[in-house]
Structures are given as C-alpha cells and as structure tokens.
Amino acid sequence: MRQLPVRIGILLIILVFAGTWPVAMAQAPLPVPQQPPVPQGAPLPSPQAAPAVYPPAELDRIVSPIALYPDPLLAQVLAAATYYDQIPDAARWADQHHYLTGPALTAAMAADRLPWDPSVQALLPFPSVLDMMASALPWTQELGNAFLAQNAEVMDAVQRMRQRARSYGYLRSNGQIIVSTGPYVEILPVNPDYIVIPFYDPVIVFAAPRRGFVIGGAIRFGFGVTLGAAFAPWGWRANRFAWGEHRVIINNAPWQRMWVNRGTYIHPYTVTRYATRPAEQHRAIERSANEREAERTGRGRREEHRR
C-alpha cells in the first residue's frame, strides 16, 4: 500500500490510453491534495473556508483504494478520514500494540485514555489500514475532505468502482464476503464479527481483464480481524450504508459531520473522549517488516515477536 499513489497513477494512464475512462481523469493521476495536510494539533480551517470540489472522475480516483472494502469497514474508514490529522499517531499506537486483540486490546485502549475521535480509534484493530492511511496522508486528507463536502458524490463514486469491478468479474461473493446483485453493490462480511481486508491492485480490478488472466485471484482476502461485543462502543456491528438515501450509519446513527460543522460535530458513541493521555502502560512492540508485509499483501497476521 506504500506504492499507492504510483499504482493509481499507472491505472489512470492505462485507462486513458485504453479509452475506457474519461480523458479528464488524466488531469489528476496522483492523490495530491488541493491543500497541504493540517499538522497534528493545528486548528482546522474556518467553517466559512471553501472546500475543494472534486469532479466525478477525481472522486473515482480518490475512493479506488478502499471502494472494495466491506461496508462496515468502509464506513469506519470514511469517518476516520475526516480526522486525518489524528491518523499518524493512531497508526503508531496500533503498530506498537498490534500484539493485543479482542478484549485485551479494548482494555488497553481504555487504559491509555486515547485522545482521538472514536471513529479513528475504531480502526486500531486494523494496523495495516491505519498504516496505509498514515503513509499516504495527502490522499487520506483528500478522502476526508471529499467526504465532508461531497458525501453523496463520494458514495456514488464507490458504487461506480464497485460496479466496474463486479461487471468485470473480479468482485463476487466468496467464503468471507457477500456481494449483492441489486442496483446498489453492497459488500457484507459473511460473519459480522469477522472483517476481512481485501488486497487488490486498482490497476487490475477496475480495468477489463486481459486475455488469459485468471480473475479469481485478483482480490485476496487472506487477512481479517475478529471483532466482538467488546468493540461495540466504537460502533462495530452497527455500521452500514443506506446507499439509495446517500446515508452512512455509524453506531446506529447517521454520520452528519460535514464541512460546515466539522469543528463542532460530535457523533454519538458511548466511548469516553479524553483530552490528554497518561504515560504508556503497555509494552510497545512495533511490527516487524515481515509482519507488515504479510498483512499488507493479504497473507494473514504473523506474530514474530512471540516466537
């Protein structure tokens, strides 16, 4: 995922020359933000500041790396991206505490009195996702700003990319996900408590398959996270999309953070929000290069530090 901007650029070049994508897409081949990222702790722009307005082709580019995520995970990523300045610190914490899972992880989250928004904390069981978002922070800022200012258009872009991948045969139901066949493409986990992270190359899955290519292996589901009742305070098992109504539901409540209220909106969670953190109370064990690569490429979770 660290090659994300380059690979998306390659995808756009291929599609433009193949004549399968609007030529306007060639004007924005990389996830470069309209404005520089806001540093951690810096004040947000005033509500009166005008947001960047992305055309459909730009939104397609922005959502392509996450468009095929299962709906519950996609909802959390979109919400967390609106707090993109908190992502690097959260990614660092998730990396250092990756050896904790289930109730042990939620206990550590509570003990450390984490100061980030619950939408960001909800991704702590997914260190590879946070790592991707932190490594491509300009793209994460784009995603968050687009979701704040163009909520409905972002959802439409997700649907366009899903329909493209489904029409080419790459996206289909399997043992981990259920892909709907209706007018809106839903991607739901077979087991609501087990969320898989799809690994796919946008260069491949959003373009027509070349002759002789085996489409069945284009999207891999080798790495997943088991969630249960312990993660309910962060909204898990209560996240979904009302695609036809352009609504994102997180923790059983419509997500209503928008550009104009982004400095004051508080989404309903039962998680306590803390302003500061105490000293670290747990062992900080960063993932090894092999552990990161195994998760990043969808080969599953490896715990080398336990050997």
Topology:
Elements: H1 4-18, H2 56-63, H3 71-81, H4 87-96, H5 102-111, H6 118-121, H7 127-135, H8 137-149, H9 151-167, E1 177-179, E2 187-189, E3 194-200, H10 202-205, E4 219-226, E5 240-242, E6 247-250, E7 253-254, H11 289-296
Antiparallel strand pairs: 1-2, 3-4, 5-6, 6-7
Helix pairs in contact: 2-9, 3-8, 4-7, 8-9
Please name the defining characteristics of this protein.
307 residues, alpha+beta
Structure at a glance:
The chain has 307 residues and is α+β, with helices and mostly antiparallel strands. The protein has helices at 4-18, 56-63, 71-81, 87-96, 102-111, 118-121, 127-135, 137-149, 151-167, 202-205, 289-296; strands at residues 177-179, 187-189, 194-200, 219-226, 240-242, 247-250, 253-254. It is built from eleven helices and seven strands.
General description of the model:
The protein is an alpha+beta fold. A 3-stranded antiparallel β-sheet has the order 5-6-7, with helices on one face. It has a two-stranded antiparallel ribbon with strand order 1-2. Strands 3-4 form a two-stranded antiparallel ribbon. The chain is globular and about 55 Å long. About 10% of the residues have low confidence.
| Helix coverage percent | 25-40%
Helical run tally: 11
Unreliable stretches (pLDDT < 50, length at least 5) are 8-38
Task: Round the mean pLDDT to the nearest integer and report it.
Answer: 81
- The sequence of SSEs as H and E is HHHHHHHHHEEEHEEEEH
The best one-word shape is globular
Number of strands: 7
If strands are numbered along the chain, what order do they take across the biggest sheet? 5-6-7
Outline the biggest β-sheet: 3 strands, antiparallel
Q: Evaluate the radius of gyration.
A: 19 Å
SS strand fraction: 5-15%
Structural class of the secondary elements? alpha+beta
Distance N to C terminus: 27 Å
